[in-house]
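Try this one yourself first.
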C-alpha cells in the first residue's frame, strides 16, 4: 500500500509530463520523453549557475576558509530548497485534492503522511542538490579529491536535505494554518508575490556587491563566525570529512526527522480536513440596486480578474507598476531625468519621448484582454444563453483592460508633467499617447484572443493565462511595436519629436479604427461560432 501511495505522489509531482491539462488527455511517450529531457536541461542550467557562484566563493578554499565556503553555499542550498518547495509542500502535504478520498479509505494515516513526506523530501532535495552538487565539485577541483571528503560531502548533502524538509514542513504548516483563516487569499497571494519579486530583483542588483564584500572581508567574517557560532564552524567542517562534525549532525538530523513526524502526526488530520474560515454575516434587509446589462457584464469581468491571483499576476502586473513608476518620478525626478538624458540625449523633446515610451512599455505589459475569451471555458454557454448582445460581452472585456490600465497611466502621466517642466504640447502628448497605445493594445488583445481560436477545454486556468499563444503574441508584439516606434525615430526621422508624435498618433488612430471595424463585424461572428 505504501509503495502505491509513494508512486501516486511521484506521479503527481511530474503530472505535467504525463498529462496535458490544456488538451485534457494523456501525453504521448515521445512528448513525455521530451518533457523529461527539458527538465534535465533545466536542472543542468541551474547547476551551472550555482557552479559559477561556487567558483567565485571558491577563493575562500585557497584562503584556508573551506568551512566558511561550505557555510555560505549551505545557506543558499537551504533557502533555495525550502522556499522553492514551500507552496508545493502546502498543497501536497496538507491541501491535497484527494485528502478526503484517502482518509475515507481503509489506509493507515501514517502511510498517507509518509507518502506525502517522500514527495516533499524529493522536491526539496531536487532544489538543494542543484546547489550542493556544484559546491562539492568546485571543492574537489580546488582542494583535491579524497575519500573522507567524498563521504563527508554525501552526509552533508543528506543533512542539508533534512534541514530543507524540516523548514518546508514548518513553512507549509504556517501557510496552511494562515490560509484557512484568510478571507481575501488572492490579494494576499498577489501582495506576497510582489514582495518576492521586489526582494529578488534587489538581491540580483546587489549580488555582485555582496559577493565582493564577503570575499574581501572573508578573514574577518570567518573569525567572527567561528568565535560566536562554533556550531556553524562544525557544520562547515562536515564536508571536509571531519568525523566529529559528521556524527554530531547525523544525530541532529535524526532528531529533526523525529520532530517532523511528531508535528505531522499531531496536525495533519486537523488541517487536511479543515474547511477554512467561515464568515458569519447577519442578514440586514436593504434595497438591491438594479444594474444595467453592460454594468452587470463589466462587474462579472472585474470579479473574474480580482478572483484569480494567477490572472492578476500574469496579465495585470502593470496595474501596480505604472503608479509606482509615477511615484518614483515625483520623488526622484532629477535622477530619472539624468537617466533618460543618458539614454536619449539632453533635448527636452527627446526627454518627453523617453517618458512616453516608458509609459507605453509599461502599458504593453498588461494583456488582460487576450485570455479573457478563453477563460470563459466551458461556462461560455452561460453568456450565450443570456439576452445580451455579443458586442456588449466583448466591450465589457475590453473596458476592464482600459479601466485597469488607463487610470494608472493618467495618474503617472500627470506625475511626469509635474516632475518635468515640459512644454504644454509635450504635456498633452505625455498624457494622450500612452492612452492611445493602451486602447490599441486592448483591441489587439481581443483580435488575438478570437482569431487564434481560444481553447475552451482547459482544466486549469493557468493554461489560457500562461501557455496561450494569444497571450504570448500580445505581449511580444506590443514590445516590438514600441521598439519600432523608437527605432524609426532615431534611424529615419530628421525633424522634431512633436511632428513625429503627431504621425505616430495618426497611425495609432488608424489601427484603432481598423480594429473597431473588425470588432463590430468579424469578432462578433467568431465569438458566436465558439
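Now uncover the answer:
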Amino acid at each position: 500500500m505504501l509503495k502505491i501511495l509513494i508512486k501516486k505522489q511521484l506521479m503527481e509531482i511530474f503530472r505535467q509530463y504525463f498529462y496535458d491539462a490544456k488538451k485534457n488527455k494523456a501525453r504521448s511517450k515521445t512528448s513525455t520523453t521530451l518533457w523529461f529531457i527539458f527538465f534535465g536541461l533545466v536542472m543542468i542550467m541551474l547547476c551551472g549557475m550555482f557552479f559559477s557562484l561556487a567558483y567565485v566563493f571558491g577563493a575562500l578554499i585557497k584562503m584556508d576558509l573551506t568551512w566558511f565556503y561550505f557555510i555560505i553555499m549551505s545557506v543558499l542550498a537551504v533557502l533555495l530548497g525550502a522556499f522553492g518547495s514551500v507552496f508545493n509542500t502546502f498543497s501536497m502535504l496538507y491541501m491535497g485534492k484527494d485528502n478526503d478520498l484517502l482518509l475515507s479509505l481503509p489506509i493507515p494515516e501514517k502511510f498517507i503522511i509518509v507518502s506525502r513526506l517522500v514527495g516533499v523530501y524529493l522536491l526539496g532535495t531536487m532544489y538543494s542538490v542543484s546547489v550542493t552538487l556544484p559546491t562539492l565539485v568546485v571543492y574537489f577541483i580546488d582542494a583535491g579529491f579524497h575519500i573522507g571528503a567524498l563521504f563527508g560531502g554525501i552526509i552533508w548533502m543528506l543533512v542539508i536535505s533534512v534541514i530543507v524538509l524540516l523548514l518546508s514542513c514548518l513553512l507549509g504548516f504556517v501557510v496552511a494554518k494562515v490560509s484557512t483563516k484568510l478571507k481575501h487569499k488572492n490579494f494576499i497571494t498577489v501582495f506576497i508575490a510582489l514582495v518576492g519579486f521586489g526582494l529578488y530583483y534587489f538581491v540580483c542588483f546587489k549580488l555582485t556587491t555582496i559577493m565582493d564584500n564577503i570575499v574581501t572581508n572573508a578573514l574577518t567574517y570567518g573569525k567572527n563566525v567561528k568565535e560566536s557560532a562554533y556550531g556553524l564552524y562544525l557544520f562547515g567542517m562536515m564536508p571536509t570529512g571531519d568525523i566529529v562534525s559528521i556524527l554530531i549532525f547525523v544525530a541532529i538530523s535524526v532528531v529533526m526527522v523525529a520532530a517532523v513526524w511528531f508535528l505531522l502526526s499531531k496536525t495533519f488530520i486537523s488541517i487536511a480536513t479543515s474547511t477554512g474560515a467561515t464568515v458569519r454575516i447577519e442578514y440586514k434587509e436593504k434595497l438591491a440596486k438594479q444594474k444595467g446589462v453592460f454594468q452587470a457584464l463589466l462587474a462579472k469581468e472585474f470579479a473574474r480578474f480580482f478572483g484569480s491571483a494567477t490572472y492578476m499576476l500574469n496579465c495585470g502586473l502593470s496595474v501596480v507598476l505604472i503608479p509606482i513608476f509615477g511615484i518614483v518620478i515625483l520623488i526622484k525626478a532629477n535622477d530619472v531625468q539624468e537617466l533618460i538624458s543618458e539614454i536619449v540625449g539632453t533635448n527636452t523633446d527627446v526627454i518627453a519621448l523617453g517618458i512616453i515610451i516608458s509609459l507605453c512599455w509599461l502599458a504593453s505589459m498588461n494583456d488582460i484582454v487576450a485570455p479573457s475569451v478563453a477563460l470563459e471555458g466551458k461556462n461560455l454557454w452561460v453568456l450565450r444563453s443570456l439576452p445580451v448582445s455579443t458586442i456588449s460581452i466583448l466591450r465589457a472585456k475590453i473596458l476592464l483592460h482600459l479601466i485597469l490600465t488607463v487610470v494608472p497611466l493618467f495618474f503617472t502621466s500627470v506625475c511626469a508633467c509635474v516632475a518635468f517642466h515640459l512644454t504644454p504640447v509635450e504635456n498633452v502628448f505625455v498624457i494622450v499617447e500612452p492612452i492611445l497605445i493602451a486602447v490599441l493594445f486592448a483591441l489587439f488583445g481581443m483580435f488575438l484572443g478570437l482569431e487564434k481560436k481560444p481553447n475552451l477545454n482547459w482544466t486549469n486556468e493557468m493554461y489560457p493565462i500562461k501557455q496561450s499563444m494569444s497571450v504570448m503574441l500580445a505581449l511580444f508584439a506590443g514590445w516590438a511595436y514600441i521598439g519600432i516606434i523608437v527605432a524609426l525615430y532615431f534611424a529615419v526621422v530628421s525633424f522634431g519629436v512633436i511632428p513625429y508624435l503627431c504621425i505616430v498618433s495618426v497611425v495609432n488612430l488608424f489601427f484603432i479604427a481598423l480594429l473597431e471595424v473588425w470588432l463590430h463585424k468579424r469578432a462578433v461572428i467568431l465569438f458566436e461560432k465558439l
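Discussion: Residues 2-272 form one domain. The two ends are 46 Å apart (CA to CA).
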